[in-house]
Design a protein that fits this description.
With about 80 residues, this protein is mainly β. It has strands at about 5-15, 25-30, 35, 40-50, 50-60, 65-70, 75-80. Strands 3-2-1-7-6-5-4 form a seven-stranded antiparallel beta sheet, with no helix packed on it.
C-alpha cells in the first residue's frame, strides 16, 4: 500500500451523520478536484489540554483518505 502524506487544508462541501448524530465528511474539494466519499472508517477523538481534535478515515471507492478536524478546520493528512 502506497501512502502519500499530504498535511494540507481542504474544503468539506457536504457532511453526513452517523451514530449518535456524529458528523463526518461526505464530499471534499482538494487540489481543484471534488471527492465524494462512499464509506466512513475509523474515527478517533483526541483531547490535548483544552483543545479537541478528531481524525477519520474515508474512502471514495478507489482510495482511502485520512482527515483531521480541529477548531472547525479540516486537514487532509494522507492518501493511500
Amino acid at each position: 500500500m502506497n501512502v502519500t502524506t499530504i498535511n494540507s487544508p481542504v474544503s468539506i462541501t457536504a457532511v453526513g451523520f452517523g451514530r449518535n448524530m456524529t458528523a463526518y465528511p461526505k464530499r471534499m474539494e482538494w487540489a481543484g478536484r471534488t471527492y465524494c466519499f462512499v464509506d466512513a472508517g475509523i474515527r478517533a477523538t483526541i483531547r490535548r489540554g483544552e483543545s479537541l481534535a478528531s481524525t477519520v478515515t474515508l474512502s471514495d471507492g478507489a482510495r482511502s483518505f485520512c482527515l483531521r478536524q480541529a477548531s472547525g478546520q479540516w486537514t487532509l493528512l494522507s492518501v493511500c
